[in-house]
Specification:
This protein starts with 6 loop residues before the first strand and ends with a helix. It is of the alpha/beta class and 348 residues long.
């Protein structure tokens, strides 16, 4: 590690089988000449994983769903992660602490880290769904600067500023060859949500494949048609890139109502591989693509079904749109650009 470069500690999910946003941001900072420490905020306490988690499950069987015996012990995941974060900060001495939300930390912990280790900026970045609760507002008060990927749930007086997570990680999301070799008709990659369930129930007779967690739990126990669609509970890294490259139609169904604003990462990631993306309509998409010519959308489960059938039988139109969206994302900002933008906003 250089003693002259500025240093940033990024807290997010850092694992081979998780969202690569943190790794993309870390690569962007390194391109800008920063030393980077990647703190995995999903680190688990061995005591919690092998003992306290099972005690909590047993308690919930007796109806005490609000009880969490691990929360106020040093062995629970939350306090364990906070202890590990302080150890990392003490060793690395960052100038900037960037907490991508992600998992949370207590206000007194962030304040203590800032004062004890002379951190110049503490930054929170909410990359989760819009929520009607005060969770995000309360979280924003912990940090010097706070950003959010949508416009919902805060106003001008709050310490929250709009910063979408969208960027192009060209080292990861890319075409694997010039020739298309399709092995899949239609795929959806993402975890279960009520909104996604509603859409998928309209597609059970179509050649759709599902990759993601939560689809095989109790809610679909007696839904054999949908269960047959689930091919894996997770897919990441090069396997995911290969899947996109080998699929005629990749679906994006937001877990939240896109009318609340906020775009998930698939709207850039999928076109960057050269694949055809069919995504739910959002007014924000028009800020990036010419809809209908550079990207195709749907506004209801019925329209989704109609467009899947149409584009499966109109290869030339589908390939033309896929090429147009790929060409468009080539000009979008990289995560180096995004981190440069973030740093500039910290100084204003």
């Amino acid at each position: 590690m250089s003693t002259t470069n500025p240093r940033v500690l990024i807290s997010y999910f850092f694992d081979k089988e998780t969202i690569p946003l943190g790794a993309s941001c870390a690569a962007g900072f390194r391109e800008l000449g920063w030393d980077v420490y990647c703190f995995n905020s999903q680190a688990e306490s061995p005591v919690d994983r092998y003992f306290l988690k099972w005690v909590n499950k047993l308690i919930r069987l007796f109806g005490l769903r609000s009880v969490d015996i691990s929360r106020h012990t040093p062995w629970g995941n939350h306090n364990y992660r906070q202890l590990q974060l302080e150890k990392a900060v003490a060793a690395f001495r960052p100038n900037l602490l960037l907490v991508i939300r992600g998992n949370s930390f207590d206000a007194e912990v962030i304040q203590r880290l800032k004062s004890r280790y002379s951190i110049r900026h503490t930054v929170g970045w909410w990359v989760k769904d819009p929520r009607a609760t005060n969770e995000m507002l309360e979280d924003s008060r912990i940090y010097d600067h706070y950003f959010c990927i949508h416009h919902f749930g805060y106003g001008e007086r709050d310490n929250i500023h709009y910063l979408p997570a969208l960027g192009v990680d060209r080292a990861l999301y890319r075409p694997l060859s010039q020739e298309k070799n399709y092995r899949h008709e239609v795929v959806f990659v993402g975890g279960w949500s009520p909104r996604r369930q509603e859409a998928m129930e309209k597609l059970l007779d179509l050649p759709v494949e599902i990759y993601g967690p939560g689809w095989l739990k109790r809610r679909n126990r007696f839904n054999p048609q949908l269960r047959e669609k689930v091919k894996a509970s997770r897919i990441w890294g090069e396997d995911l890139i290969a899947l996109y490259n080998e699929t005629k139609i990749v679906l994006n169904i937001s877990s939240w109502d896109p009318g609340l604003t906020g775009l998930n990462l698939r709207v850039f990631d999928v076109p960057a591989t050269g694949a055809f993306l069919l995504t739910d309509h959002s007014e924000e998409l028009a800020q990036h693509f010419e809809l209908g010519r550079e990207l195709e959308t749907f506004s209801s489960p019925d329209e989704l079904r109609e467009k899947i059938l149409y584009y499966l039988s109109h290869d030339q139109e589908r390939e033309k749109l896929a090429h147009a969206s790929y060409q468009k994302v080539l000009g979008f900002e990289s995560y180096t650009d995004k981190m440069r933008n973030l740093l500039m906003r910290l100084e204003t």
